[in-house]
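Researcher: Good morning. I'm working through a list of sequences from a screen, and I'd like to move beyond sequence-only analysis. For each chain I'm collecting a predicted structure so we can compare shapes side by side. This is the next one on the list. No need for commentary yet; just the structure.
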Amino acid sequence: MSTDSPRSGEWSRAELLARVITESQKHYADYSVFNQAMADHVGLHPTDMQCVALLDLEPDPVSTGDVARLTGLTSGSATRLVDRLVKAGVVERHADPHDRRRSLVALSPTARTRISTAWDTPGRAFGEVLSGYSDAELAVIADYLHRTAAVGREQAERLSHTPHAAPGTP
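Model: Good morning. C-alpha cells for this chain:
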C-alpha cells in the first residue's frame, strides 16, 4: 500500500469516507483530462475515445444500439458516432449473421493496434501503481470500482429521466 495513505486506525470512518469521496472526484476529473489527452494523441474526440475504449472490452461486434447503451448516448447520437468512427477507419461495420437488416460494429485491426500502442506507456504507469497493493487490497479496489460503476450507470439513467432544474435552482 502507498506510504502516503493513512492506515485504517489513523483516521476516523467519517474522515476516511470524506477522503474517498474527495479522491473519487479528483480521480474522475483527472481521468477526464487523461481521456482528453489520449483522444488528442490518437486524433479522436473524447467521446469517440471513450467509445473505442468500451468497444475494446467487447468480445464480439456490437450493434449501434449497444453503442448507445455502452456510452449513454441516444440512438441518433450513437449512429452519428459510429458513422464518424467508420469514416475515420477506427471501426468497421459487419453484417449481422443473424439479421441481415442490421449491422454490427467492431474496432478495426489497425485501430486496435494504434490504440493499444498508445496505451503502452500509460498502461505500464497504471500497472506500477497497482503493483504496490496486496492481492486483498486489489480485490477491494476492484470491488469498489465495479460497484461504483454500477451506481454511476444507475444514476446516469435516473438523471436522464429526471427533468432538468432551472438555472440557479439547486
